[in-house]
């Protein structure tokens, strides 16, 4: 009997941070905030629910996908603002797990979502959802297993109000999602390094340049130079520059990408529609408009 090859595909639905892109100078890399989908042997894993989750939700609903596992790095607005508009939440019979673990006081996931979706900020609350939703609260350091052969390591990140990084492992391949973390100059964050170690693909918070770090100290974000340094140290194959600063236009992002690639050829600036396939070999498919 022939064994069906394992699949592991990664799609970027939003790569910006803090705010969606605005105006014609912020379109080449997409206007959507953080959302990354991983398709692993039929399982649909989604990381963060920025505005990028809205078009993803339309696709999942059109495909009648029966189940989705959603993981939050944390719930600052740019990472959760698309959640109430995620169409599978309104489809009866759809199974959705919602996992978060960044809160220092471990506030239950369901309570936190309800607190976000309340008057006078929204006219609807979670009770309007029709899907079968399983809210899950974990602690950083826990290992999550959303499906057969899928292992997700977690670690706490250095970010105001907390954040969690993820390391997704399947069939010998590794994709890490590490956004919203601030490094200490001259020091190596061992938790982040463990998430990076020998990964095929890493998404990393590269909001700033090293020259900007002093100005934005304690904002909870890192630099593309630190991402490159960690990628080299950890033996990463491909680094996606992620969580682009809201003031950065397309020209500035292209310049950062070029500088990063000069130091680490595996670096690339994330954009909406960027797709990777890790089976049988890592390959990037560019679909950016005009790119």
From TrEMBL:
Q: Which residues cross the membrane?
A: none
Q: Kindly give the SUPFAM superfamilies that the UniProt entry links to this protein.
A: Metallo-hydrolase/oxidoreductase
Stretches assigned to the Metallo-beta-lactamase domain: 43-244
Question: Annotated Gene Ontology MF terms?
Answer: 3'-tRNA processing endoribonuclease activity
- Recorded protein name is MBL fold metallo-hydrolase
């Amino acid at each position: 009997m022939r064994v069906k090859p394992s699949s592991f595909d990664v799609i970027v639905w939003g790569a910006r941070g803090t705010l969606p892109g605005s105006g014609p100078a912020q379109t080449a890399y997409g206007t959507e905030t953080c959302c990354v989908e991983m398709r692993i042997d039929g399982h649909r894993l989604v990381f963060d629910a920025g505005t990028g989750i809205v078009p993803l939700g339309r696709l999942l609903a059109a495909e009648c996908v029966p189940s989705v596992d959603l993981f939050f790095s944390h719930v600052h607005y740019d990472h959760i603002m698309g959640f109430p508009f995620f169409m599978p939440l309104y489809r009866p019979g759809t199974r959705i797990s919602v996992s978060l673990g960044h809160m220092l006081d471990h506030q239950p996931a369901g309570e936190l979502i309800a607190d976000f979706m309340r008057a006078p900020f929204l006219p609807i609350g979670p009770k309007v959802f029709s899907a079968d939703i399983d809210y899950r609260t974990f602690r950083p350091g826990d290992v999550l297993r959303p499906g057969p052969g899928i292992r997700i390591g977690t670690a706490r990140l250095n970010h105001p109000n907390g954040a969690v990084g993820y390391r997704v492992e399947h069939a010998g391949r590794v994709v890490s999602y590490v956004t919203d973390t601030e490094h200490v100059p001259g020091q190596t964050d061992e938790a982040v390094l463990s998430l990076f170690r020998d990964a095929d693909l890493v998404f990393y918070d590269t909001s700033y340049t090293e020259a900007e770090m002093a100005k934005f100290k304690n904002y909870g974000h890192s630099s593309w130079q630190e991402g490159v340094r960690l990628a080299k140290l950890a033996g990463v194959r491909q680094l996606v520059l992620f969580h682009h600063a809201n003031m950065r236009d397309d020209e500035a992002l292209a310049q950062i990408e070029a500088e990063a690639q000069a130091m680490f050829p595996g670096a690339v600036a994330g954009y909406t529609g960027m797709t990777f396939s890790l089976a049988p070999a890592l390959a990037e498919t560019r679909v950016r408009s005009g790119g």
